[in-house]
Each structure stands twice: as C-alpha cells, then as structure tokens.
UniProtKB/TrEMBL annotation:
Belongs to the amidase family. This is Amidase. Its EC number is 3.5.1.4. The keyword Membrane does not apply. The keyword Zinc does not apply. Keywords: Hydrolase. NCBIfam families: PRK07042.1 (NF005450). It comes from Novosphingobium organovorum. Coiled coil: none annotated.
Length: 461
C-alpha cells in the first residue's frame, strides 16, 4: 500500500486503519500538507482547521487501537460544500453578501452522518453564489480552477469539492445537486459522483429536487459514502424510508442482458461536442461488447424546455437575492444581478405554467426510460472552457442540459469518467441514469464500466 496518505482511497484508508498498517494521524497530516501545497493553485478549500483535524485524527487512532471505532469512516478526511451546514464553520453559500457571519452552530444531516461515522470534516469547499452557476466563480472566493488544466473551469456548483478531490486533497467530498451540481464538476474533474434517488440522502431544508451527493475518485468510495449519508434523519420530512442495503456490496455487476438506452442529444436537440460524443459512444460500445444491448434513444423533450428550466431557476435565485438586506445585495456576484429582473417580471400564473410544462416533460422522459434498465448520456455536452467564465442561466445553459431533468424526476444518476478531451486535457463523463430507487444498480453498472473501460485515470500533479 502506498504511504503517501493523500492519494489513498477511502477503501484503502479504512482497510489500513483496521489492519494497523496506517495511522489516521499520518493520513490527516499528509492531506493537510497536500492542501497547503496545492490549494493556492486551485482555490477549492475554505475554513481549513488543521489543528482540530489532527486532534480528531489522534482520537481516531486511539479508537482503532482500542477496537472502539465510531463507524465505518472513522479517521477518514472528508470535506463538505459551503452550502452544507457544519456546526463549527460559517456558511456563506459562495456569496460575499454572507461573508462575516459566524459558525452556523448546527449540522445538516450529511455533516451529522459523517461525524457519527467517525469521519473528520477538516474543511469546506467553494461554490458560486447561491449555487446558481454551473461554473466555479464566486463573489466570496473568486475563481476555482480545474487541477487537470488550471486555465479551465471546474463546473459547478460543487466546484471546490470536485477540484480538491481531483487534486487528491482528501479522498472524498460531499456536495449538493439541484440541476447537476455534483455530477457536472465531477465530470469536468474526472470523478465519480452520484445524485441519488430523491430523498435517499436526508438533507435540509427538505426539497423535492435538491439532494446531497458524494464526489470520489472511485465508484466503491462513492458507495461507501452513500452507506453513511443514506442513514435516516427525522428532520427531513421528504426523505425516503431508510433502506439498510449495503451499496458497496456486489460491485461491479455482470452487464450481460442489460437493456441500455444511449441518448446523445439533450433537451433542445443540443448535440455534444465531437470529443464528448466519441467518448460516450466508446463507453456504450464497451458495455455492448460485454453483453449489454444498446439502443439509440432520441431526445424527445420540447425544444423550449431549456428556457423553461432557466425560468424556474431564476425564480429560486431571485428569492434568495431579495431576502438579503438592501445594503448587502451589491456584494453578490455582479454577473448574477441582471438576471433577477426577469424573475421579478414573472407572474404567479407564469410560474405555475412553467412548473406545469416541467411536469409534462417529466412524463416524456420517464416514458422513454420505461422499457430500459438504464440510460446512458454524456454528463456534459462540452469539455474544457475558461476558468473565469460564469455561463449562467441567461448566457449559457448548455452545461446542465443532460443532467437537470433527472433532479425533476428524482431518478438516480451517476457520472463516471469515460475519457479525456484531447484539446483541453479535461476529463469527460458518462452519465448513467436508473429507475427510481435503483441506486444500488446504478452504482453496480458504474463499477462495471469502471472495471471494463481499459484505462486508469492519470491524476494530475
């Protein structure tokens, strides 16, 4: 086993801790040293508390030695996104308008589950203002950069989560996903990330479309985190009944006989760039060569749906903006502010009509999925693009075109790396969508592809 510490997976860490061949203190120090060296380049990590992290690592080491661990993640360093409440740290939600507020004093369900399982929350990660961008630009933190190419964007909104794990500043991170916000940056940074069946992971405030999700370098690590995050929390009244399934068991699966759909064009009939298309088609061919049947599924969503989705996001963002005191609004990222008058101009009737159109589109999507076991799509239709670009709802909705509707339907969807763009050097992601509640099956198929794809990720230095 490598002793570098920072580049170990969660599975390797916990096995080493259990065997006594690895110390949580050594690992934690290695991760902190790695972050000190690399975070200034990528700008992904905030609210780092190294002293507390090492204190917790020493306590974890004693528990492992005494055979009294708190849970399956005891001593594992994990970060949480700025929008996930963690008691000892502030929560700015990426916006300078919130800078100066103190620790929130409470743990959201994902943070609480990590702590109960013994994980060390040693930092939080950057995000764009209010989570409204599919890119890594923030008024509070500036530009978060992609470790594969520092000139390129991470995607968003879990931008720092993806960049830090890809740079091997820790083995895993927890982000949140409203329209692709764990899957998009994971794809751009070469990671695995699951948006689970809606309600699988309790979170606050309860939402019918937003979920927390893990970002890791392997499918197995994603499943290990889901085992912990999916544990019940009565505070989320929209959460699913707890299912004690072991998501890390039976990985990977045999793909023989699976009925897979391949959908390359996204809503609005927008096609992926050639490099993305080629990588996803090659991934589908790998699964087909191993016994799955693959059929092309054309995009059947209405061409104007992207604009309708934009309107729904704008209303949500404008609501958060209007809650701010007047004197704080000028601190919000300037690129966002011109979008909000469009939301202000929408009537209640307009917004209700928008939601009705989304409901109709959900029926179309689920109808296409009905005869399939899983659907394969590109996670993003583009690859590397400049790090400083905001590309928000009114000036570039091309990034979440393949991901956002699965938040609306509630289906589980995972991204797994399937190639690297030859021009930018930025990874390309394959999205696997499953039937509702089939989170385990989605992880199993992702693990099968990971094992069959024929290449290992050449993590950037």
């Amino acid at each position: 086993m490598t002793t570098a510490g920072y580049d170990l997976t969660i599975a390797q860490m916990t096995r080493g801790f259990a065997e006594g061949s690895l110390s949580p203190v050594t690992v934690m120090q290695a991760v902190l040293d790695r972050a000190e060296a690399f975070n200034p380049r990528i700008n992904a990590l905030i609210f780092i508390d190294g002293d507390l992290a090492l204190e917790q690592a020493r306590a974890s080491e004693q528990r492992w030695q005494q055979g009294a661990v708190l849970g399956p993640l005891d001593g594992v360093p994990i970060t949480v996104k700025d929008s996930i409440a963690e008691a000892s740290r502030p929560m700015y939600r990426g916006s300078k308008a919130h800078v100066g507020s103190g620790p929130v004093g409470k743990d959201a369900p994902p943070a609480a589950r990590l702590k109960e399982a013994g994980a060390i929350i040693w930092a939080k990660t950057t995000m764009p203002d209010f989570g409204m961008l599919a890119t890594g630009v923030s008024s509070a933190y500036g530009i978060t950069r992609n470790p594969w190419n520092l000139a390129c964007n991470t995607g968003g909104s879990s931008s720092g989560a993806a960049a830090s794990v890809a740079a091997r500043c820790g083995p895993g991170a927890i982000g949140t996903d409203l329209g692709g916000s764990v899957r998009l940056p994971a794809a751009f940074c070469g990671l695995v990330s699951l948006k689970p069946t809606q309600g699988r992971i309790p979170h606050l405030p309860p939402s019918p479309v937003r979920s927390a999700g893990p970002l890791t370098r392997t499918v197995l690590d994603n499943a290990l985190l889901l085992n912990v995050l999916a544990r019940p929390d009565a505070r989320d009244y929209g959460a699913l009944p707890y299912d004690p399934v072991d998501y890390a068991a039976a990985l990977p699966r045999d793909v023989k006989g699976l009925r897979l759909g391949l959908q390359l064009d996204a809503m609005g009939d927008v096609a992926p760039i050639p490099a993305v298309r080629a990588a996803v088609e090659k991934a589908a061919a790998v699964l087909e060569a191993n016994g799955a049947s693959v059929e092309i599924v054309p995009n059947a969503l209405p061409a104007d749906l992207a604009g309708i989705m934009v309107d729904s996001y704008l209303v949500r963002g404008a609501m958060e903006f209007r809650k701010l005191p007047e004197e704080r609004r000028a601190l919000v990222l300037a690129d966002l502010v011109p979008w909000f008058p469009k939301a202000d101009a929408m009537s209640g009737f307009d917004y209700a009509a928008c939601l009705d159109r989304i409901e109709a589109a959900k029926g179309v999507l689920l109808g296409q999925l009905a005869g399939l076991d899983y659907l394969l799509t590109p996670t993003t239709l583009v690859a590397g693009f400049p790090a400083e670009e905001t590309r928000g709802p009114l000036d570039g909705f091309d990034i979440p075109l393949a991901t956002s509707m699965w938040n609306q339907t509630g289906n589980p969807a995972i991204t797994v790396p399937c190639g690297i763009d030859p021009d930018s050097g930025v990874p390309i992601g394959l999205q696997i969508v499953g039937q509702r509640f089939d989170d385990r099956g989605v992880l199993q198929l992702a693990a099968a592809y990971e094992a069959l794809r024929g290449f290992a990720m050449p993590w950037p230095e």
